[in-house]
Every structure is written in C-alpha cells, then in structure tokens.
From TrEMBL:
This is leucine--tRNA ligase. Gene3D superfamilies: HUPs, Isoleucyl-tRNA Synthetase, Domain 1. SUPFAM superfamilies: Anticodon-binding domain of a subclass of class I aminoacyl-tRNA synthetases, Nucleotidylyl transferase, ValRS/IleRS/LeuRS editing domain. CDD domains: Anticodon_Ia_Leu_BEm (cd07958), LeuRS_core (cd00812). Residues 65-202 form the Methionyl/Leucyl tRNA synthetase domain. InterPro entries: aa-tRNA-synth_I_CS, Leu-tRNA-ligase, Leu_tRNA-synth_edit, M/V/L/I-tRNA-synth_anticd-bd, Methionyl/Leucyl_tRNA_Synth, Rossmann-like_a/b/a_fold, tRNAsynth_Ia_anticodon-bd, Val/Leu/Ile-tRNA-synth_edit. One of its GO terms (biological process) is leucyl-tRNA aminoacylation. Pfam families: Anticodon_1, tRNA-synt_1_2, tRNA-synt_1g. It is found in: Mitochondrion matrix. GO terms for molecular function: aminoacyl-tRNA deacylase activity; ATP binding; leucine-tRNA ligase activity. It comes from Phycomyces blakesleeanus (strain ATCC 8743b / DSM 1359 / FGSC 10004 / NBRC 33097 / NRRL 1555). Residues 251-439 form the Leucyl-tRNA synthetase editing domain.
C-alpha cells in the first residue's frame, strides 16, 4: 500500500519527477502539482487495447448509434474537434457499459474546394493532399484515445464511396427529383471560370484574378428538395430531442408562408398577365407598382416598349458586372420597364419595374409593390421615386389623436383597413384578406397559394474535386443517365490545375468523350461535380454497411442501426447539412431503402433522434489596452496566471475569450496540450469546464484541478485494491451508520451520473457528483476493506472510465481486477439504498401542524408507533391530551401524518 504519489511512481512506473514538463506559454507555469506520468499510462493501455480490443460488436444486444460529424481533412485537428470527439467517445463508452451494441464510426468529408486550391497554388494533386491530411489527422486523433471503429472508415473521395453517391443521384433522377435548369453563377471573366461565393471578396472581385465578378446564367443540376418542403417542415415537430434553436432555424429556412397569387394584366399586346404571390392579400388596394426579376420572361426586347428597351436591357446587363449575387439581392436599384399593368380591382394603371432584389427562383419572379406596408417596397419606392404619394390602406387600430403628418415609415403590422380599400373599409387585416381572396377567386384574378422560402438545391459545381454527376450528353438522345452497373463514373486523376478556363474535367478529353449508353453514338460526359453537401447527406447510412459492393447499404442492416441515436456536431451545420440529410433520409425511406422499426423515434424517415450541438472553444486573448493590438504569447508575462503583465510596458493587458484565430494569437494546439497535460485531464477539463452546448473558455491553468482529482481517485483505488478482502456487500440493515451513509451517497451518485450521461448531457454535473463521492469516501471512517468502501470506489472508477479511459483502466487494475473496466456493467442504483435511515415526520393534529418526530425509515407510516412517540413528548401531550384518535391520515410518503381526534 502507498500513501503518496511518489510511491505510486516506483510501484507502477508511470510517474516522473516534478518539473520535467516544458510548459506552453499560455499554461500556468510551475503549478503542476501532481506528477502522474499520463503519457506512460496512455502508452501502456494503448498497447493492451491493441492486443485485446474491449469493444466487440454483439448483435444480440440492442443497438446504439453514436455519431459525431465527420471532419473535413484540413490536416490539422483543432480544439473544436477534440471537444466533439471527447463527448462522443464518452457517450459511446457509457452506452457500451450499459450493454448496448454501440456503433461509433469515423470518416472524412474529403471532397471540396481547399484541396483544389492547394493544387492550383502549390501544385499538389488534391488526392495526394487529401490522403496526406487524413494520415496526419488520424495520427492526432490516435493521441486522444478516442475509440472509433476504424474498420468502418469512409472517405467521400474514394470511388468505393462516391460510386454510391452517384447511385443515389440516379435514384433521385429516376424519381424526378434531379433536374437541370438555368441558374445564375459568379463568373470570373478573366479566368473564365465559375467561382464559389467564398471566392468572391467584399468588393465583388475574384480571389484569384481580381476581376470584377459577373452574373452568368448556366445550365445546372438541382435536387427538388421543395417537393419535401411540407414533410421537412411538419416533421420538425417529431424532433423532440433537438435543440429548440436548431428547429427554429430549420423552420425559418423552409419559410412557409400562406397567402394568395394575384394576376395583373399587362397593358401591352401579346403579353401574358403577371402573376404575383403575396402573404398579405389584405394589402391589395395598396399595390402601387409591380417588380419583376432581371431574369423574368418580360425582360425581352420584343416585349418592352421600343423607347425603353435599350435602357432596361443595359441596366440588366450592367447588373452582373458591378456586384456579386448576394449584394444584388440587397440592392435598392431598379428601372422602369416602360410597361404598365392594370390593377385587378381598381383598374388603375400601375408601372412595372425590374430590380435585382426580386429573385427569379422565388415564387413567380414577380412581386407586388406595396410601399406603405412592406419595408423593402418602401425603401425601393423612395429610392426610385416610383410614386408621388404612398397609399396607406391599413392603419393601426390605436391612433394618436391630432397627428396629421405624413408617416415616415411603413406600417407592416396587421390592423384595420382604411377608406382606400373601398368595400373592405373598417375590416380587420385577417378578415379582409379572406374577403379579398374570395372576391379574387370569384372574379377569376387570383387564388390561394402557399410559398416556401426553401429553394431547390443547386448541386452542380463547376469544380474538379467532387463526385462526377453520372450523366452523359448525347447529340441525339440528349440527357442520358449512366447505367447503374457502369458506376462509378471515375474522377480522372491525370488532369492539370491552372484555375483558369473552367473545370479541369472539361479539358480531360479522354475522360470527357464517351459513348452514349443509349444509342452507342459519340457523346460527352457531364463535367459538373456534386456539391460536397451531397456526400455528407448520407455518410451516416454508409457507416452501417461500409463494405457493401452491390448497394449503398443493405436495407436490413441499415434499418437495424438507423436512425442515429445521438448526433453530435457544431451548430454551424444546423441548417443546410441537417436539412439535406433529412431530405436524403426521407427520400430513401420513401423508396424503402431504409425501414427502421416503427417504434423507433423520431419516425417518418427522420435520420437523427437526439441532436447535441456543441458550443465553440474560445481562447484566452490578450490585447494592449492602449493600442488595442493583439498580443503574442511571448509578449505577456503569465507568472501569475490571474494577473498577467505586458512585458514591454508592465501594464495589465485586457483579457477576453474569443474564437481562436491566428491573428489573435489565441489558438491552442490540442496535440501539445495533451502531450503536456495528459489526454485524460484534457478530456475531463473539456467536459467539466462548460455544458456541451455552451462556449468553452479554454485555459490550461484549470486542468490542474482535474489532475488532482485523478490523483485522488488513483490513490483511493490503490487503497481499496490493497485492502480488498472480496467480501459480499451486506444487507442494508447490517451496515454501520457510516457505511449506510457512504452506500446511500454512492447510489445517489450513480442515479445522478446516469441521468446526466443519458438525458441532460451535463457532463460537468456528472464530474462534480463524482468528485463529491470521492470526497465522501476519502473523508469517511469506513474501513477500506469494507465491501461498502470497495463498492463505492469501484463505482467511481466505472463511472469516470468513459470520460478518462486510461485512468479508468489504471484504477480498475489498482482495484485488483484483471478484465478491462469497459467490460464491466455500468453501475445501477437501488431505490431502497437511496432512502434515508431516519425521516422527519411532521404531525398535524386536526389539520394543524403541531410537532415533528424523527423516525427510523422502517417506521415511516406506522401510525400507532408515531402516536406512541408523539404522546411521549411534552408538546404532543399538550395537544393530544387524553383524547383518543379517531382517524390517522398519512401523506407525503409518510413524512406527514394528520391525527383527527375524537370530540
Ligand atoms: Zn444517344
């Protein structure tokens, strides 16, 4: 037996003398109180795990699928990764100990722009760059003792994977959900290539050539996600274990609005009426102009009045040259087309404008201008002097008396219709909207309509490093899907990267030219590749059956694992990735490719049951309070962690916690942290410092607290191990009072930690509870040889093991056990153990609380005994006197008894 850390070192060879660590500049210096050699402990257990893996899939056990979002292989693991994998690894180890057949896979979201940029800038082939980065990140991950099932690893850039991405695309195509149409892209006129939004700078210039980016229409591929809009919206209600914030973001993105579509006839020869959607039919009388998108069919020379056509067409052409697309949508610019429409109820002539803020793919590509009741219309109307006087057709039911001035802003709320609305004057907005719509239906100029903000998913990318779209273009047969047996359409590796002249695929002539699968004539391949969001919309399904060579996955195997039980990842993916994954999953569910048992939540083909969105990791940031300059680590003296000094000036820097970035010198390299502080203390620190969904303010200084606790549990374990007599746990009644207390605290902790791990994910609370239990054990008078003591320490070790795998194993060994701690069952609590020895029982006499008695738990509810004890006390005697009890009522689990006396 040993009582101090150094003896542990000699005994186990895991310690090293104090002060051998080189501390990082931001770490609290010279405070490494304990000297456990975590690195040696990690090496020891990694070797043992390699010899005898603790996780073996057992299909007879119930399935549990823990998924963390797979990373982009940038080559560098950051603290955010460490946080998400620590959470997922903790959960999967916990579930495994609970007896589940756990799936905890990992892979790589390996296609995408950075690899292609590296090829252009540094001449490294994207494939080579990606493979190198994956190797580097795997090496970093292996340091974190995260137990991923690498036998299921997927890489989206492998032909074995993207073959099935192409297969699913073709299934979508067959179902009519993949189609082509023209869409506007960012076009670099110098490099003759399409740019992603992130390659266009704030001034609308290309990242590479510096040229002003143009809007250009190209024929592109879309997924008809809008067909699923209603399901995607309604089924949000099934997602009871998703954060409310994420659900709100999904609802907003889908953006359902109900309203009406009205027709305005155009006062020109051979021009069909303009259809406009509005969510506010009650404002129809306030329509003072119409606006169409620059891409609208009205904007053609033959449809525009001769005098106006040049100006309009030049305006539309120039739009592309001055701004990128996103700015155009914010713009207030517009020009009169020279055309007028007739208002369907007032027959007034109203002007038709063209403006970029109207999106061609939202609704009908035309909107009604109601400046009095819409902020954007108000701004547009005033910027372009569309009308002299703005018509307010709705007013607030509450009016300020005596105000006659012109309103200075639009009135966008619901209200009461004014006299301008003719027969609808005095009606409330909702009621008027219905009445106007009814009139429109009768008169034949409108009908009710539903509109979604959600657009179809533009999945074409004019890029090289992505999954080729499996389509062939034939001069005779036009668009021909590649037969599924000919998949994959491989990405040719022998291409050159210049960043100019479009996608390298368009120049890979050997690959480009092919035979038409239908007529066998000469044809060309589609050169667009798929958006990487396509790859990541189904990777979690592939994990269930990763080596399948005849299907993306076997429906039966996938259905046993899906939906994912818990999905952990950053909130930045809360919209697109989750929405697209839901779309894919719902599509495949409808196709019968996945058919989970109907009692599995959430149902309706929803892919993820619990969603845990982890917060960011912020770094400690120092600024010079005078110059506001960010300070480098070497410019700050951190001898006193709480009172840092700027070395040059002796002043105190301003300290904040901010998103880690190179320019703020506040980044933390996870690899060096775990090397210096140990993996398990780092894991514990991550889990302890903040609940998973909140921002984690990183500082190394407080890791020491976790190291101290680990040292304490190691000591408790060896104390228990050395004194162990392998005795059976006595019955509750046979325990001493001290044992009883320890046993109760142990079981209370088991209950609380189990709940924290399975429902609230409050790992910080779980750790506090375990720290309290270890304090209870170390401060108790119970002998270490007592089975109650042994039981308490074993429980602590089992419960901390998922968070600290190597320490868990080490302690378990100290306890004299041979098997891995991960082969142990997660401890269960006994309700009767939670009961207190004594209960304070309140006594009422005729409904009034008069006294209390302290009862042994066994006597709770025993009214005769309670009466006897009450009569023994002076207070009881005073109230009970000689009277006998007519009735005794027991309440609050026996903690309250009401004696009703005989009169
Ligand atoms: Zn053909």
């Amino acid at each position: 037996m040993f009582s101090c850390h150094s003896s542990l070192g000699r005994a186990r060879g895991l310690l090293r003398p104090l002060g051998t660590n080189t501390l990082r500049s931001y770490a609290s210096p010279a405070k490494k109180a304990n000297a456990i050699d975590f690195s040696a402990m990690e090496t020891k257990w990694k070797a043992r795990w390699a010899d005898a893996p603790s996780s073996t899939a057992d299909p007879s056990k119930p399935s549990y699928y823990v998924l963390s979002m797979f990373p982009y292989p940038s080559g560098l693991l950051h603290m955010g990764h460490v946080r998400v994998y620590t959470i997922s690894d903790t959960l999967q180890r916990f579930r495994r100990m609970q007896g589940y057949n756990v799936l905890h896979p990992m892979g790589w979201d390996a296609f995408g722009l950075p690899a292609e940029n590296a090829a252009i800038e540094r001449g490294i082939h994207p494939a080579e760059w990606t493979v190198k980065n994956i190797a580097a990140m795997k090496e970093q991950m292996s340091k974190l003792t995260i137990d991923f099932d690498w036998s299921r690893e997927v890489r989206t850039c492998d032909p074995d994977y993207y073959r099935w991405t192409q297969y699913i695309f073709l299934e979508m195509y067959k179902a009519g959900l993949a189609y082509q149409k023209e869409a506007v892209v960012n076009w670099d006129p110098v490099d003759q290539t399409v740019l992603a939004n992130e390659q266009v700078d704030a001034e609308g210039k290309s990242w590479r050539s510096g040229a002003l980016v143009e809007r250009k229409k190209l024929r592109q591929w879309f997924f008809k996600v809008t067909d699923f809009a209603e399901d995607l919206l309604n089924d949000i209600d099934l997602l009871t274990h998703w954060p409310e914030r994420v659900k709100q973001m999904q609802r907003h993105w889908i953006g359902k609005s109900q309203g009406a579509e009205f027709e305005f006839s155009v006062l020109a020869e051979n021009v069909s009426p303009l259809k406009v959607f509005t969510s506010r039919p009650d404002t129809l009388y306030g329509v003072q102009y119409l606006v169409v998108s620059p891409e609208h069919e009205l904007i053609k020379r033959e449809r525009l009045p001769a005098g106006q056509a040049d100006e309009v067409l030049t305006f539309v052409e120039d739009l592309g040259k001055v701004q990128n697309m996103e700015e155009a949508e914010e713009s207030k610019k517009g020009v009169f087309t020279g055309l007028y429409a007739s208002h369907p109820v007032t027959s007034e002539q109203i002007p038709i404008y063209v403006a970029p803020y109207v999106l061609s793919d939202y609704g009908t590509g035309a909107v009604m201008g109601v400046p009095a009741h819409d902020k954007r219309d108000w701004d547009f109307c005033r910027a372009n002097n569309v009308v002299d006087k703005i018509k307010f057709v709705i007013e607030s039911p509450i009016k300020e008396v005596g105000v006659t001035e012109e309103p200075t802003e639009p009135f966008t709320a619901h209200g009461i219709l004014t006299g301008i609305s003719g027969p609808y004057k005095g009606m409330k907005s909702k009621e008027a909207g219905k009445a106007i719509l009814k009139k429109a239906i009768q008169a034949g100029f409108g009908h009710s309509a539903t509109q979604y903000r959600l657009k179809d998913w533009l999945l074409s990318r004019q890029r090289y490093w992505g999954a080729p779209i499996p389509i062939v273009h034939c001069p005779t047969c036009k668009v021909v899907p590649v037969p599924q047996e000919d998949l994959p359409v491989p990405l040719p590796l022998d291409v050159t990267f210049t960043g100019k002249g479009g996608s390298p695929l368009a120049r890979a002539t050997d690959w480009l030219n092919c035979k038409c699968p239908k007529c066998n004539g000469p044809a060309t391949r589609e050169t667009d590749t798929m958006d990487t969001f396509v790859d990541s919309s189904w990777y979690f399904m592939r994990y269930t059956d990763p080596h399948n060579t005849s299907l993306p996955f076997d429906p039966k195997i996938a259905s046993e694992r899906l939906p994912v039980d818990i999905y952990i990842g950053g909130v930045e993916h809360a919209i697109l990735h989750l929405l697209y994954s839901r779309f894919f999953s719902k599509f495949l569910y409808k196709q019968g490719a996945i058919a989970p048992s109907p009692n599995k939540l959430p149902g309706n083909g929803e892919p993820f049951n619990v969603l845990l969105t982890q917060g960011m990791v912020h770094g400690r940031t120092f600024k010079d309070p005078v110059t506001q300059r960010f300070l480098k680590p070497e410019e700050v003296d951190l001898t006193d962690f709480n009172k840092p000094k700027i070395i040059a000036t002796g002043e105190s820097p301003s300290i904040s916690y901010e998103k880690m970035s190179k320019s703020k010198y506040n980044g933390v390299d996870p690899t060096s942290v775990v090397e210096e502080q140990g993996v398990d203390p780092t894991r514990l620190h991550i889990l302890y410092k903040a609940p998973p969904s909140e921002v984690l303010e990183w500082d190394d200084a407080s890791i020491i607290g976790m190291q101290r606790w680990i040292a304490k549990v190691l000591k408790l374990s060896s104390t228990a191990g050395e004194s162990r007599l392998k005795l059976e746990l006595p019955e509750l009644e046979a325990m001493t009072g001290e044992e009883r207390d320890m046993y109760r605290t142990t079981h209370l902790t088991i209950k609380q930690v189990t709940e924290s791990m399975s429902t609230s994910f409050g790992f910080n609370t779980a750790i506090s509870d375990l720290i309290k239990l270890s304090n209870c054990v170390s401060g108790s008078k119970v002998e270490a040889s007592s089975p109650v003591y042994q039981h308490a320490v074993q429980s602590i070790v089992k419960m901390m093991a998922p968070m600290t795998p190597t320490v868990g194993e080490e302690c378990w060994e100290e306890l004299g056990e041979k098997e891995s701690v991960f082969q142990q069952e997660w401890p269960k609590w006994e309700d009767k153990a939670l009961a207190k020895d004594n209960v304070e029982c309140m006594i009422q006499i005729n409904g009034k609380t008069r006294l209390s008695v302290n009862l042994p738990a066994a006597l709770v509810g025993n009214t005769e005994e309670i009466e006897r004890r009450a009569r023994e006390s002076p207070v009881g005697q005073k109230w009970l006197g000689e009277k006998s009890i007519r009735r005794a009522i027991v309440a609050k689990n026996g903690e309250l008894v009401n004696f009703v006396l005989q009169n």
